[in-house]
Amino acid sequence: MSSAVEAAEVTGAAAQPDLAVELHGITKRFPGVVANRDIALSVRRGTIHAIVGENGAGKSTLMKILYGVQLPDEGTIAINGTPVVLKSPIEAIKAGIGMVFQHFMLADNLTVLENVVLGAEGLHGIGDAARAKIRELSGEYGMAIDPDALVAELGVGDRQRIEIIKVLYRGAKILILDEPTAVLVPQEVTELFDHLRELKAEGLTVIFISHKLDEVLSVADDITVIRRGTTVAEADPKKVTARQLAELMVGSELPSPQTEESTVTDQVRLELRGVDLSSGGERKVLDGISLVIHAGEVLGIAGVEGNGQAELVEVIMGMRRPTAGEVLLEGDDITTAGVREIREAGVGYIPEDRHRHGLLLEAPLWENLILGHQTQAPNIKGPLIDAKAAKAETERVVRDFDVRTPSIFVTAGSLSGGNQQKLIVGREMSHSPRVLVAAHPTRGVDVGAQAAIWDLIKAARREGMGVLLISADLEELVGLSDTIRVILRGSLSGDFDPDVVTREELGAAMTGAVNREEER
Amino acid sequence: MSTTAPAREQKLRASIHTGRPSWYWPVLILGSVLVLSTVRVLTGANDLDSSGALGAAIGLAMPLALAGLGGLWSERAGVVNIGLEGMMILGTWGAAFFGFLYGPWVGILGAVAMGVLGGAIHALATVVFGVDHIVSGVAVNLLGAGAGAYLAVRTFTGMPGGGPTQSPPLDKLPFLSVPGLGDWLLGLEQSHTWLVADVAGILRTLTTDVNVLSIIAVLLLVGSWWILWRTPIGLRLRSCGEAPHAAETLGVNVLRYKFIAVLISGGLAGLAGGFLVLVASNLYRDGQTGGRGYIGLAAMIFGNWRPGGLAAGALLFGYADAVQLRGRGDVIHAYLLPIGVLLLAWGVWQLIRAKQEKKLLGVWRIMMALVVLLWYAVTSEVPPEFTSMTPYIATLLVLAFSAQRLRMPAADGQVYRKGEAN
Amino acid sequence: MKFDLRKVALATAAPLLAIVVALLFTSLILLAAGDPVVAVWQVLFKVPLPRQMVAILNEATVLYLSAVAVAIGFKMNLFNIGVDGQYRIASFAAAVFAGAHFLPGWLNIVVSILIAMVTGALWAAIAGFLKVGRGVSEVISTIMLNYIATYFVAYMLKSAAVKVEGSNATSTQILAEDSRVPGINLQVWLGTGREVYGLIFLSIIVGILFWFVLSKTRFGFDLRATGRSETAAIASGVNVKRMVVTSMVLSGAIAGLVGMPLLFGQDYGYGDTVQAGLGFAGMSVALLGRNHPVGMAFAAILWGYLNQLSNGLQISAGVSDKLVLIIQGIIVLSVVIAYEVVRRAGLRMEQRRVARELAAKPAPVAEGVAA
């Protein structure tokens, strides 16, 4: 195993001017945790430098420090050889740093132009000069953007391009991209990387954060690995393998969901027949969806965000009524049933956005256990809430599902993402549902909790539950599913066999043959 | 991306921003005048759109427009301000107190200052401390009403002509007129001829006895539009109400913009109070505002958070207010006719065209229309208490029919704390 | 649970702090106006006379009902500002029915109270349906309905009124002796012949029911969940539209009760001397009491105390009685700020505590704080 690992040490105050960015000894503490500890980073000008690490390793905090959103408790930052203190985003922008956030920072009700010039109105005004500049930039880098389009009407790929243009508009010479490929399909990822290479050719420096090691290896010139808040290694992508990188990231072997013996039976748990959903527009949100999930089967649905997955889940859970078609739970028609009825009938739900749909953040854990099951044992005694039983049950769930919390009386908002998710999974599984709907179940969850949740889903499968797994993580889908289908513009593709399908095939199905933009 | 021709792009852009074709407003206005004219002639209610009524309507619309404008500035920055009523009350006291001592112009400044004070309290609670916007607004209303009552007792009791709940009579702000037109137009108006009289009435209202403050109010409306949609400062302020976290990352000092927006909001509400005291009447009275702060909010919502729509809404509500203030039961009665006819037409259309489940609604509407028309036929006047209700019922109806198709600033009402971005 | 004790201490510190702030600012205002500060506080900080104590209890009875009505809405993030209109129209309906004396004695009273509840509920339901069906903000609609109710009742009073001999007041039919609720004579304890409203028991029952329903029943859980996070409530099976209407209806029903102690214990009719502003006062009490059944009781008593004792301000200190409105307004404002500050501090403290305790335990995998 020969990985090019070098200690990143810069001695004395002699900063090197051909380094676009140089961080030394960066430490940042938050109440109860040290997010960054003694981080060192050297980014050469005109390169694409990747920072890898698992969820919660401290990458985002580091980038916030570099962008002036946070101040480090200790350490120094040097940009192009000059030491700087970045007290706010404005100062970072002045230093030539531009940040493209993972969660886009765009105002839906404003136009592209307004979003781009906001905060930088002094550069080219807010009228025609600005418009011309945006057109110039977008043409130069091959991104087709209409400055007067309303952001609300644009898709994910376009939004990311707007974010990049925002940064270039301000004359950034150092771009930071935080998990840029999280919402893109393989083809769009290729497009993005082409853009990045063009930027590099123009002499710009790109720092990009990711945990997708294959992509990192394909485009980066240098790699820095962060683990538990500190830099552990520098790697040369030409020499290191994904596996080695992964081990550096975690410090031990990276868990991946292993497929097991098939537990699929003939008994049908959930069936959808010809489900349509229109929202008044011309295009249907869901178009003729038909699927079958058997007991002991995991059906994985892959797809880019915004193709109807969220609406599919809402239809199954009863939050929306389909305009046509039927939803059958073990033969019972639940198409027009309400959410409560459906949950009572035995459909468990792990929502995509746990903060908005799965938890009451300011309520104690034991009340959160009741959430979603206010009409089921052991939480109730007639029309009353049985608090004692609910508390006992919460203790059990916390124990059995390894939810790390000091007590069941703390508010749900105090737990980390992984523990919150474990609580939700535990809560849902404890009612032995017949069908489990799991939407992005390991999003924003650290690796340990992720492995635990994968095990829980596999356990569910073994116990005969039918699981609908919706995810953007192809590895998760491939590892857990018995069958994979792709959702695109509201329609489901045919079956893919996870044992033989390739990422390219899935990616092609996820984008379809036609470029989505031309549809308008 | 497709390269659209400039002309098409222009029209597309226009429809993106206003959602309506360019002939919409002129046709609407012309159509309304025609309908009003016809109804007036048919029912003989000549005060329907007489210059007296319209003048009163504009006079009463102004405080609503100013209050609504205050609400607009605040909500565009993302802070819901239902404390407008309280700030308006403070403004009424300020106008009366300073107006009595130093004349109407200082009175106006006093009104604005008191309004800004109210705004500062709301801003402190919501922007600095993160209190829920509506709770803070309720508290500001309570405090404003209490402070107004107390200050009135404290200051007006000793004054000549004043009392514990009323200020002494004050000098009003000056009224302006275009010379020469007034009498001629009045003559035309009193001929009661179809359409001619109405147009004359409208023109006369716009050119005779227009108060200076009304003109200032219109300038403020136009100015607000220009600042908010045509300047960088306005863009930044609006971004605070649409996507504050994004704005923060781009270097916009969101908290400062919100704070200042709420102060402006208070000042405008105070000015609205000043209008009530120094233009619409000539003194301060306890309870003078009568819920107009809330009606102003309704006008803002009706106007889709834009000054143009706000003005239209304010005119609508001001007209309703004017009718009830003039005690014209016959005017309200006259309106029953077109309302009934429109309801009837709508109900019939629904019955014929709509889907199965909506047909029942159509029948329901026809029945209501018949009730309204029967009421019109049987009575000749609407009782005074009902005329008093007019602005409030109008508000409810207007909101009931328009609230759903509107789009408020995306982050309106959101409690914003710095640095909580992802 | 040591932590809870600290939280309770913080929670009670907030209203105390608010009162201190109000005293401070009021003193400043008095100083600026040249009014006697000391004299004012002397008047206000007296132990109430027995007859005043009875009056305080009576006022608190009514205010408490109003506060509970508002609190039901607050718990759901609904702002029922229409309590004023609801209790007027409810009191009127009840007064008219009771005055007609269709039924004998206590039956008349009970049915009238039910009619008041139903009327209040229906009036509030209008706002509820407008919100759910048409998306109209209940803040504006309830306020509009207040004014509409006031005028509507004024109109109806003209035809329903019966001339009272010897006075110029208009009122509905005065209730016969057996349709009145007797007061409670506390002569023995307090040394005054003034009576406390018999319907104070109604307030107490309402308070107990409020506590019970909200914290012990499934319906209460659903209601609180919707108030905390509407999206989570929907995902958990709550029919939010139905919940909004139900909430408004309940709130209106309780609001309808606000006028009952006055009707059956004091005025014996609905006239143009009916008390105004009880809705807004109720809101103040609810905010001060933080929507808690016991907290609101204390707040209601405090409000009654302030109102009663301020009656003497004009005579004893030469300052207008209306000063009390400023004191009350500042208290409300300070308390909402204080509660917010305390709430955030509490959350932060808890998050830190949790992170600290977890960090102390051995971790299988490193966990960062979820951003």
Secondary-structure class of chain B: mainly alpha
Order of SSEs of chain C = HHHHHHEEEHEHHHHHHHHH
Unreliable stretches covering 5 or more consecutive residues of chain B:
1-18
The portion of residues assigned to helices of chain B is over 70%
What is the overall shape of chain C? Answer: globular
- Taking Cα atoms only, what radius of gyration of chain C do you get, to the nearest Å? 23 Å
Q: Which runs of chain C of at least 5 residues are low in confidence (pLDDT < 50)?
A: 363-371
What oligomeric state do these chains adopt?
heterotrimer
Report on the biggest sheet of chain C.
2 strands, antiparallel
Task: Tell me what portion of residues of chain B adopts beta-strand conformation.
Answer: under 5%
Strand content of chain C: under 5%
Helix content, binned percent of chain C = over 70%
* Radius of gyration from the alpha-carbon trace of chain B, in angstroms: 23 Å
What is the CA–CA distance across the termini of chain B? 31 Å
Give, in order, the helices and strands of chain B.
HHHHHHEHHEHHHHHHHHH
Strand order of the largest sheet of chain C: 1-2
In total, the number of strands of chain C is: 4
Strand order of the largest sheet of chain B: 1-2
What is the number of E strands of chain B? Answer: 2
What does this structure look like?
Chain A contains 18 helices and 22 strands. Chain A is an alpha/beta fold and about 525 residues long. Chain A has helices spanning about 60-65, 90-95, 110-115, 120-125, 130-140, 155-170, 185-200, 215-220, 240-250, 310-315, 340-345, 355-360, 365-370, 385-400, 415-430, 445-460, 475-480, 505-510, and strands at about 20-30, 35-45, 50, 75-80, 80-85, 95-100, 175-180, 205-210, 220-225, 230-235, 270-280, 285-295, 300, 325-330, 330-335, 345-350, 380, 385, 435-440, 465-470, 485-490, 490. Chain A is globular. In chain A, a hairpin with a 2-residue loop joins strand 1 (about 20-30) and strand 2 (about 35-45). Chain B has 17 helices and two strands. Chain B has helices at about 5-20, 25-45, 50-75, 85-100, 105-130, 135-155, 180-190, 195-205, 210-230, 230-240, 245-250, 255-280, 290-300, 305-325, 330-355, 355-380, 385-400, and strands at about 175, 210. In chain B, helix 3 packs antiparallel against helix 12, helix 7 packs antiparallel against helix 8 and helix 14 packs antiparallel against helix 17. Chain B is globular and about 55 Å long. Chain C has about 375 residues and is an all-alpha fold. Chain C is about 75% helix and about 0% strand. Chain C has a two-stranded antiparallel sheet. Chain C has a two-stranded antiparallel ribbon with strand order 3-4. The two termini of chain C are about 30 Å apart. At the A-C interface, helix 11, helix 12, strand 18, helix 15 and helix 16 of A face helix 9, helix 10 and helix 16 of C.
